[in-house]
Design a protein that fits this description.
The protein has one domain: Nuclear Transport Factor 2, Chain: A, CATH 3.10.450.50. The protein contains three helices and four strands, in the order H-H-H-E-E-E-E. A four-stranded antiparallel β-sheet has the order 1-2-3-4, with helices on one face. 32% of the residues are buried.
Length: 132
């Protein structure tokens, strides 16, 4: 799936345009905050940008490869909570709920994700899936 045009709404459902939201983060791999990285990773799942997902995944937990399900359509992201993860922090936590549709119907994924900032880059470390 191709990235949206710069003047289209961003798939992360921030309400911003792709060109001023996740577009620059997908292009560079650099986000100013853990929340912005989380939004860009959701967008990467929505547009099947495996390269962005892997390069923003911490090497200590990153898989060798990532196969995305072609049947899954990521539709909406809600940020539930975040702790730290700002431009002057080294660590951050972002809790989110992602809404999707797949062959079985509609579903959600709620996760509390950990991030670290190394060499001025935010990286996804891991997450704990939460129920409702």
């Amino acid at each position: 799936m191709a990235n949206p045009a710069s003047d289209q709404r961003c798939p992360c459902t921030s309400g911003d345009l792709f060109g001023s939201c996740c577009g620059p983060v997908l292009a560079s791999g650099s986000a100013p905050t853990a929340v912005r990285l989380m939004r860009s990773r959701f967008t990467a799942f929505a547009v099947a940008d495996v390269d962005h997902l892997l390069r923003t995944w911490h090497p200590s937990t990153r898989p060798d490869r990532l196969d995305l399900d072609d049947e899954t359509r990521w539709q909406r992201l809600d940020i539930i909570d975040h702790v730290a993860g700002g431009p002057f922090d080294d660590r951050g936590v972002v809790e989110f709920e992602a809404f999707y549709r797949d062959a079985a119907g509609r579903g959600t994924l709620r996760e509390r994700s950990s991030f670290v900032r190394e060499d001025r880059l935010w990286l996804y470390v891991d997450g704990v899936v939460r129920s409702g």
